[in-house]
């Protein structure tokens, strides 16, 4: 395992200057060069699966199956697709214009914005770090990636691999914590992508504002799941929701945060949750190698504190292992407004069930809180589906399962309001780093007989005839 080495401010400045020079020199612009870098990124992952899995086991004791399916697999797939589609994305576009403007060659040029800063979190450190890097490469932008210091295992593997596969004059890892990120944020970037929590997002947004740097913010929040017991199969709903809390031990921005259900259906849903917990063998989660640990002592103690303070009744789980920083997926019933579990995003394997008196109350509850990253609902009621489409706001809207929308490469992934702004996935990421540069080329040669007479109306002195609309 490579050591986790924090970069100095001199190294940060040197990397920044190198990347700026590379961009100015035009190195990153040829499409063939970009495709080569994308292929190198694919190779980097495919040839180093073992060390990446090892990095994850240091940080999260993450099951290798989850590393392959949720991290390496999607990045490889999206890098390959980006390379395949790059010619189409990057080609100039000719907009529709009025007949007499055709000779002006109006064109939309796709131009790289410049040098990009990507600041990523620890919870999906390969996917969330490399998806923006794929976008930057595709768009022809050099990039600095600052992975999370809270997951030093994967961050140090990335620092070791980047210079072996990617052009170091264009793609660099900077490792460090708050001081190093603060230094990075003082520099003038052409775009910043930050994935993480809303508090730090505000620090990043303030720093970006100093230079008027455009920003993509991928944030989190409390993603609700509505269980409409009248029309849904509770067994399937319970199993799918519980799975959403076991995956990466609930440390995923799109995990269902809390469940809203009619009070009269709560008993039946709790029974279904208990059955699902047996089926998923969650009583063995503390020792299971199909289950992740909590990332750090700080996050583990935060979750333990939520458990201690909650006034909800535990219906499954509740056990913990301090040495391994493990928490069995734990479900609470009869959780009320004001409970510790309903304060902030849980980001761990705890699921509060919040009973409501009717489904309108569920919609009102959601609308009274910040717009979530995803809104989940298990329902076959067409009217309820339409009401959720029309009357609520969220980054994504997902019926009858959880997290699964992430597996569709062509859907834009984004938050809204406090869950963030800007979109990612394939061309959506490419677009974040691409400037649409408008261009016209009005022919001088034909001006005398064509354009100049027609344009004469714009010159003063104005007359009523020349100012008609
Ligand atoms: P984190 O603590 O690793 O922070 C993310 C990044 O911010 C790191 O690189 C870190 O170094 C940097 N950072 C931390 N403090 C900073 C400061 N004071 N100044 C500048 N930079 C600083 O990760 P996290 O925030 O705990 O991640 C979890 C959050 O991210 C959750 O809210 C989750 O919902 C959200 N998230 C969102 C997405 C998404 O795509 N929308 C994906 C994953 C996680």
UniProtKB/TrEMBL annotation:
Extent of the signal sequence: none
GO function terms (MF aspect): aldehyde dehydrogenase (NAD+) activity
Keyword Transmembrane in record: no
Gene3D superfamilies, alphabetized: Aldehyde Dehydrogenase, Chain A, domain 1, Aldehyde Dehydrogenase, Chain A, domain 2
InterPro entries reported for this sequence: Ald_DH/histidinol_DH, Ald_DH_C, Ald_DH_CS_GLU, Ald_DH_N, Aldehyde_DH_dom, Aldehyde_DH_NAD(P)
Domain Aldehyde dehydrogenase positions: 8-437
Pfam families: Aldedh
Catalytic residue positions: 218, 253
Keywords: NAD, Oxidoreductase
Cellular component aspect of the GO annotation: cytoplasm
SUPFAM superfamilies (UniProt xref): ALDH-like
Family the entry assigns: Belongs to the aldehyde dehydrogenase family.
Name this protein carries in UniProt: Aldehyde dehydrogenase
Lineage: Eukaryota, Fungi, Dikarya, Basidiomycota, Agaricomycotina
């Amino acid at each position: 395992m490579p050591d986790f080495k924090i970069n100095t401010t001199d190294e940060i400045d040197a990397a920044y200057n190198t990347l700026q020079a590379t961009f100015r020199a035009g190195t990153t612009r040829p499409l063939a060069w970009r495709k080569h870098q994308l292929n190198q990124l694919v190779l980097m992952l495919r040839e180093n699966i073992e060390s990446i899995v090892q990095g994850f086991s240091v940080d999260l004791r993450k099951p290798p199956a989850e590393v392959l399916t949720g991290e390496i697999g999607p990045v490889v797939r999206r890098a390959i697709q980006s390379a395949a589609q790059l010619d189409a994305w990057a080609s100039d576009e000719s907009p529709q214009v009025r007949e007499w403007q055709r000779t002006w060659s109006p064109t939309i040029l796709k131009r790289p914005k410049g040098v990009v800063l990507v600041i990523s979190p620890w919870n999906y450190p390969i996917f969330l770090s490399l998806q923006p890097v794929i976008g930057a490469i595709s768009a022809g932008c050099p990039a600095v990636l600052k992975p999370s210091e809270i997951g030093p295992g994967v961050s140090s593997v990335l620092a070791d691999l980047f210079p072996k596969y990617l052009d170091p004059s264009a793609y660099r890892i900077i490792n460090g914590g708050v001081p190093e990120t603060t230094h990075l944020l003082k520099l003038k970037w052409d775009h910043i992508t930050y994935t993480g929590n809303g508090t730090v997002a505000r620090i990043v947004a303030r720093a970006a504002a100093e230079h008027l740097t455009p920003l993509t913010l991928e944030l989190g929040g409390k993603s609700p799941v509505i269980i409409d017991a009248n029309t849904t199969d509770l067994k399937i709903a319970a199993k799918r929701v519980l799975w959403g809390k076991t995956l990466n031990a609930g440390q995923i921005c799109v995990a269902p945060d809390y469940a809203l259900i009619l009070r009269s259906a709560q008993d039946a849903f709790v029974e279904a949750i208990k059955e699902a917990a047996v089926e998923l063998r969650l009583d063995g989660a503390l020792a299971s190698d199909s289950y992740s640990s909590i990332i750090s002592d700080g996050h583990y103690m935060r979750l333990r504190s939520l458990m201690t303070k909650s006034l909800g009744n535990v219906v499954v789980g509740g056990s913990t292992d301090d040495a391994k920083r493990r928490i069995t997926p734990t479900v609470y019933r009869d959780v009320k407004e004001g409970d510790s579990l309903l304060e902030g995003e849980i980001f761990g394997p705890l699921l509060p069930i919040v009973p409501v008196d009717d489904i309108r109350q569920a919609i009102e509850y959601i609308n009274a809180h910040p717009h979530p990253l995803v809104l989940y609902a298990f329902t076959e009621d067409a009217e309820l589906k339409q009401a959720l489409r029309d009357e609520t706001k969220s980054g994504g809207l997902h019926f009858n399962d959880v997290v699964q929308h992430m597996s569709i490469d062509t859907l834009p992934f984004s938050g809204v309001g406090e869950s963030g702004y800007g979109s990612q996935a394939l061309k959506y990421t490419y677009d974040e780093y691409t400037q649409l540069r408008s261009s016209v080329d009005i022919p001088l040669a034909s001006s005398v007989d064509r354009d100049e007479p027609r344009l004469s109306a714009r010159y003063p002195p104005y007359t009523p005839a020349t100012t008609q609309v």
